[in-house]
Amino acid sequence: MKLSKTEIEAIQHEMTLYEDPGAATIEALKIVQEHRGWVSDESLEAAAAVVGVTPTQMEAVATFYNLIFRQPVGRHVIMICDSISCYLTGYEEILAYLKKTLGIEFGQTTPDNRFTLLPICCLGNCDNGPAMRINTDYHGRLTPDKVDAILAEYP
Ligand code: FES
């Protein structure tokens, strides 16, 4: 899958910002993901060619950052924090509620392609646990009722 002109130009712009163009690797992955929702093998190889690194080098970066999705995801990605503060403030109840409400397990996407559910380490929102992130939005002090209201914001 070839990258679009817009993607290529955006990556090339990022490369101008670094002394070593290879340092734009993570930005290149983010650009691809912004445009496609996830980073396929073909897209990764195309982005590597633009940046001038090997696909293996690009893959190493992609797998290191857990916010780069290497499999298709739903329209909205729910990342629930499973670190200590959230664990102590109700993570298990909220996770069980999310799984029951959405009918999916970690790593799965709802059949209507609306939500993907993933675990994540501390979101830096520890004083508002239990916390989750949906796409780029942060939500905290979750209760089942609050989860219902929040999910409704993501059609
Ligand atoms: S422990 Fe959950 S946001 Fe920090």
From TrEMBL:
[2Fe-2S] cluster binds at residues 81, 86, 122, 126. InterPro entries: NuoE-like, NuoE_dom, NuoE_N, Thioredoxin-like_sf. It comes from the Bacteria. GO terms for molecular function: 2 iron, 2 sulfur cluster binding; metal ion binding; NADH dehydrogenase activity. Its cofactor is [2Fe-2S] cluster. It holds the Pfam family 2Fe-2S_thioredx. Binds 1 [2Fe-2S] cluster. SUPFAM superfamilies: Thioredoxin-like (SSF52833). Coiled coil: none annotated. It catalyses: a quinone + NADH + 5 H(+)(in) = a quinol + NAD(+) + 4 H(+)(out). Composed of 13 different subunits. Subunits NuoCD, E, F, and G constitute the peripheral sector of the complex. Belongs to the complex I 24 kDa subunit family. This is NADH-quinone oxidoreductase subunit E. It comes from Salinisphaera shabanensis E1L3A. The lineage of its organism: Bacteria, Pseudomonadati, Pseudomonadota, Gammaproteobacteria, Salinisphaerales. The gene is nuoE.
